[in-house]
C-alpha cells in the first residue's frame, strides 16, 4: 500500500499538510485583509453642508475618516470603490439644529462591501457622538443632568467559558471535517480492493485461495477502516499542531494580537481536548459504516471507473447531514439521535464545547454501531453472491 | 484426482432467459494425467473450471477433487487445488517474490516453506532474473510465470490451468508447456483448457471437447481419431462441434 502514491496522497499528505495549509492560508489572508481594511482610514466625501460650518468642520476634524474634496460624480466613485462612502448634510443643517427642528443626515454607501461598511460605521459613530454633545449642551443650558435622556447604559459581557464559545464557532466544522475525511480516506482503498481487484484480475486469484470469503471481506474491511481512521487521526494531529503553532504565532507579536482582539468573534477558539478525543471515538463507528458501505457499493462495479461513478455522488449524501448539523439552531433530540451522520455531527458540536449528554451519546454510539454492523453484514453477503463477484 | 458428475451451471439473464453455461458435464482425471478441455470461446470451459475451483457453486451435480466434494468442502478443495485463471493478473506494486509470498501466506504456509518453494519454482520456471522486480514492469511471459508460481506455491495435488499460454511468445509458451509436463511426471492431476490444438496434441493424455456447455466428445487422442476417422485434431474438433449438441452422441466416457 505504501508504494501507492494515490493512497499516500489521500490518506497522509492531504489531511496532514494540505488541509491545515489551506486553513492557515485562508485564515491568514482574511485576517490580514480585514486588519488592513480596519487600519486604513476610509476616504469619504461630504455632500452639501456649505451653509452649516459647525457640523461640517466638526466632521472634517474627525480623524477616523479622511474627507476628500467633493466631486460631482461622487456616486460613481462609491460604486467604483474609490470612495468608501459619502455623507449628505441637509441644507440649513446648523440652523435647524439651533432651532430644534428635525433634520436627516444621509449616508451613501456600497452595500455589502466590507470597507464601505467600515466607513459607514465610522460616520455613524461620529454623528451619534455629535448628537450626544448637542443634547448634553442643551440639557446643560436648561440646567438638567445628562441622565435625563439616557437614564441607563446597556452593555453585554460574555460569561461562557472560552471552550464553549469555541465549540459554537468551530464545533460544527470539526465533526464535518472528520466525517468528510473519514469518507475520503475510505473511498480509494475500498474501490481499489473490490472493483480495482476485479479490473486487474487479482480477485479471482484470491478467491481461489483456501481463505474463507468472510475472512477475505473482513481483511479488506479492516484495511479500509485503517485507512479511514488513519486519515482522520493524521488530520486531527495536524489540526492540533496548526492551532498550537497558530496560537503561539498569534500571541507573540503584540501588533498581531491587538489586531486579533479588535476583530469581534475572531478570538482564537479553544476546544475541549477531551471532547475532541470523544469526537474521535464517535467517529469510529461512522468509519466502520462508511468502510462497509463503500466496500459493498464498489464491489458491484466491474472497474475502478465504474466504482467512482457510484461513489462520487455519495459524497453529497454524506455531506448533507453533516452540513445540517453545522447549521445554527439544529439541536440534538431523541429522533435526530437516530439519523446516521447527522447525529454524530450534532453530538460532536456539544462534545467540543464540553457538554456531555451521556444518554444521547449512548444512543448515538449504539445506533451508529448497529448501522455499521448491518452494512458489514451486507458486504459479507455481497461477497458470497456469484452474480456480484463475477458480473459480466 | 478429479471426478465430475453431471456438473451443471445455469445463469439467469434478463434478456436471454436461462443460460446453461455448463450442462451435465461428467469426466474424470487421475493422478499423473493431463486432461485437455478443448473448446471455442464461450463454450463453457472457464465456467467448468471455476466450478471445479469452487469459485462458483454448481446449480446441480457435483465433483470431487483430491477426495473432497466441491459443494460440501470447498475450503478443503481450494487448499489442494492450484487454479490459474485465464483473466488472472498480478499486483503491479509487488515484486514477483512478494506476490508468491503473499499467496503462500493466504494458503497458510510458513515463511520457511514459502522460501524454499519459491526457490524451487523459480528454478523450474526460470524466474531468477526478475524475482525481485516489481510486476508492473514485466513482459507477458514473466507475468504468466509469476502467476503460475503463485498458483502452485502450496504444491497442490490438482492443477487447473485456464488457457495458460494465451498471448505468450514461443519461448515462454514452451517453458510453460514443459513445466506442465513436469507436473504430470510428479504425479499431479492436471486439467488444461485451451483452444490451441497443437498444445493438446503435445500435452494431453485425454481430451474433452466442450461446446455450448456440453461435453460432446471425450477420450484419448487415439480414441478420438478412431471414432471420427480423422488424424488431425482440428478436423476432429470441427466435426464434433459442427455436428452440434442436438445430433452428437458423445463418445462414452471411458473411466480409468
Output the structural class of chain B: alpha/beta
* Rg on CA atoms of chain B, Å: 18 Å
What portion of residues of chain A belong to β-strands? Answer: under 5%
Radius of gyration of chain A: 30 Å
Shape annotation of chain B: globular
Task: Report on this structure.
The complex is a heterodimer of chains A (392) and B (256). Chain A is mainly alpha-helical and 392 residues long. Chain A is 68% helix and 4% strand. A 4-stranded mixed β-sheet of chain A has the order 2-1-3-4. The longest helix of chain A has 39 residues, at 213-251. Chain B is of the alpha/beta class and 256 residues long. Chain B contains 9 helices and 10 strands. The A-B interface holds A 3-4, 200-202, 204-212, 386-387, 389-390 and B 11, 50, 53-57, 75-76, 78-79, 81, 83, 85, 87-93, 103, 106-108, 134, 147, 150-151.
Which helices and strands appear, and what pairs or packs with what?
The complex is a heterodimer of chains A (392) and B (256).
Chain A: H1 5-39, E1 43-48, H2 53-61, E2 66-67, H3 74-79, E3 85-89, H4 93-99, E4 106-108, H5 114-141, H6 162-170, H7 173-200, H8 203-207, H9 213-251, H10 254-262, H11 273-300, H12 304-326, H13 342-352, H14 358-383, H15 386-389
Parallel strand pairs in A: 1-2, 1-3
Antiparallel strand pairs in A: 3-4
Helix pairs in contact in A: 1-7, 1-9, 6-13, 7-9, 7-11, 7-12, 7-13, 9-11, 9-14, 11-12, 11-13, 11-14, 12-13
Chain B: E1 2-13, E2 17-29, E3 34-38, H1 45-52, E4 60-65, E5 68-69, H2 74-80, E6 81-84, H3 96-106, H4 111-125, H5 140-151, E7 158-162, H6 170-185, E8 189-194, H7 197-203, E9 206-211, E10 214-219, H8 221-228, H9 233-247
Parallel strand pairs in B: 3-8, 3-9, 6-7, 7-8
Antiparallel strand pairs in B: 1-2, 1-4, 4-5, 9-10
Helix pairs in contact in B: 3-4, 3-5, 8-9
Amino acid at each position: 500500500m505504501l508504494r501507492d502514491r494515490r493512497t499516500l496522497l489521500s490518506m497522509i499528505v492531504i489531511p496532514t499538510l494540505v488541509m491545515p495549509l489551506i486553513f492557515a492560508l485562508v485564515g491568514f489572508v482574511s485576517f490580514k485583509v480585514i486588519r488592513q481594511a480596519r487600519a486604513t482610514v476610509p476616504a469619504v466625501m461630504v455632500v452639501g453642508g456649505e451653509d452649516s460650518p459647525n457640523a461640517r468642520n466638526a466632521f472634517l476634524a474627525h480623524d477616523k475618516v479622511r474627507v476628500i474634496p467633493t466631486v460631482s460624480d461622487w456616486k460613481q466613485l462609491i460604486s467604483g470603490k474609490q470612495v468608501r462612502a459619502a455623507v449628505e448634510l441637509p441644507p440649513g443643517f446648523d440652523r435647524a439644529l439651533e432651532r430644534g427642528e428635525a433634520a436627516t443626515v444621509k449616508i451613501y454607501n456600497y452595500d455589502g462591501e466590507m470597507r464601505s461598511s467600515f466607513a459607514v460605521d465610522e460616520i455613524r459613530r461620529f454623528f451619534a457622538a455629535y448628537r450626544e454633545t448637542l443634547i448634553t449642551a442643551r440639557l446643560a443650558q436648561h440646567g438638567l443632568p445628562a441622565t435625563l435622556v439616557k437614564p441607563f447604559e446597556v452593555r453585554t459581557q460574555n460569561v461562557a467559558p472560552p471552550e464553549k464559545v469555541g465549540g459554537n464557532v468551530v464545533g460544527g466544522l470539526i465533526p464535518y471535517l472528520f466525517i468528510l475525511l473519514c469518507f475520503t480516506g475510505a473511498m480509494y482503498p475500498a474501490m481499489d480492493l473490490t472493483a480495482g481487484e476485479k479490473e486487474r484480475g487479482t480477485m479471482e486469484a484470491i478467491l481461489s485461495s483456501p481463505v474463507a470469503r468472510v475472512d477475505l471481506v473482513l481483511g479488506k474491511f479492516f484495511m479500509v477502516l485503517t485507512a479511514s481512521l488513519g486519515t482522520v487521526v493524521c488530520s486531527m494531529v495536524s489540526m492540533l499542531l496548526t492551532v498550537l503553532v497558530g496560537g503561539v504565532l498569534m500571541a507573540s507579536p503584540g501588533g498581531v494580537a491587538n489586531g486579533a482582539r479588535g476583530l469581534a468573534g475572531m478570538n482564537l477558539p479553544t476546544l475541549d481536548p477531551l471532547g475532541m478525543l470523544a469526537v474521535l471515538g464517535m467517529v469510529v463507528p461512522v468509519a466502520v459504516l462508511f468502510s462497509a458501505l463503500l466496500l459493498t457499493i464498489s464491489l458491484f462495479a466491474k472497474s475502478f471507473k465504474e466504482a467512482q461513478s457510484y461513489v462520487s455522488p455519495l459524497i453529497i449524501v454524506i455531506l448533507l447531514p453533516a452540513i445540517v448539523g453545522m447549521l445554527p439552531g439544529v439541536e440534538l433530540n431523541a429522533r435526530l439521535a437516530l439519523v446516521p451522520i447527522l447525529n454524530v455531527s450534532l453530538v460532536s458540536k456539544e462534545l467540543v464545547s464540553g457538554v456531555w449528554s451521556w444518554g444521547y451519546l449512548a444512543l448515538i454510539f449504539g445506533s451508529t454501531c448497529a448501522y455499521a454492523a448491518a452494512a458489514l453484514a451486507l458486504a459479507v453477503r455481497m461477497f458470497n453472491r456469484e452474480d456480484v463477484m463475477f458480473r459480466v | 484426482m478429479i471426478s465430475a458428475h453431471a456438473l451443471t451451471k445455469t445463469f439467469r439473464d434478463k434478456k436471454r432467459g436461462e443460460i446453461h453455461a455448463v450442462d451435465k458435464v461428467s469426466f474424470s482425471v487421475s493422478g499423473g494425467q493431463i486432461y485437455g478441455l478443448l473448446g471455442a470461446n464461450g463454450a463453457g470451459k472457464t465456467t467448468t473450471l471455476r466450478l471445479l475451483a469452487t469459485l462458483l457453486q454448481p446449480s446441480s451435480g457435483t465433483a470431487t477433487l483430491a477426495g473432497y466434494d466441491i459443494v460440501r468442502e470447498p475450503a478443503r478443495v481450494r487448499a489442494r487445488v492450484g487454479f490459474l485463471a485465464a483473466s488472472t493478473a498480478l499486483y503491479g506494486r509487488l515484486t514477483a517474490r512478494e506476490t508468491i509470498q503473499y499467496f503462500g501466506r493466504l494458503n497458510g504456509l510458513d515463511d520457511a516453506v514459502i522460501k524454499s518453494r519459491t526457490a524451487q519454482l523459480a528454478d523450474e520456471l526460470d524466474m531468477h532474473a526478475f524475482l525481485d522486480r516489481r510486476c508492473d514492469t514485466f513482459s507477458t511471459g514473466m507475468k504468466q510465470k509469476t502467476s503460475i508460481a503463485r498458483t502452485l506455491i502450496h504444491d497442490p495435488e490438482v492443477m487447473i490451468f485456464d488457457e495458460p499460454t494465451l498471448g505468450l511468445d514461443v519461448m515462454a509458451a514452451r517453458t510453460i508447456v514443459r513445466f506442465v509436463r513436469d507436473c504430470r511426471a510428479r504425479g499431479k492431476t492436471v486439467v488444461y483448457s485451451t483452444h490451441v490444438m497443437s498444445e493438446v496434441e503435445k500435452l494431453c493424455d485425454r481430451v474433452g471437447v466442450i461446446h455450448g456447455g456440453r461435453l460432446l466428445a471425450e477420450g484419448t487422442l487415439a480414441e478420438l481419431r478412431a471414432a471420427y476417422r480423422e488424424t488431425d485434431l482440428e478436423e476432429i474438433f470441427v466435426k464434433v462441434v459442427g455436428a452440434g449438441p442436438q445430433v452428437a452422441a458423445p463418445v462414452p466416457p471411458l473411466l480409468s
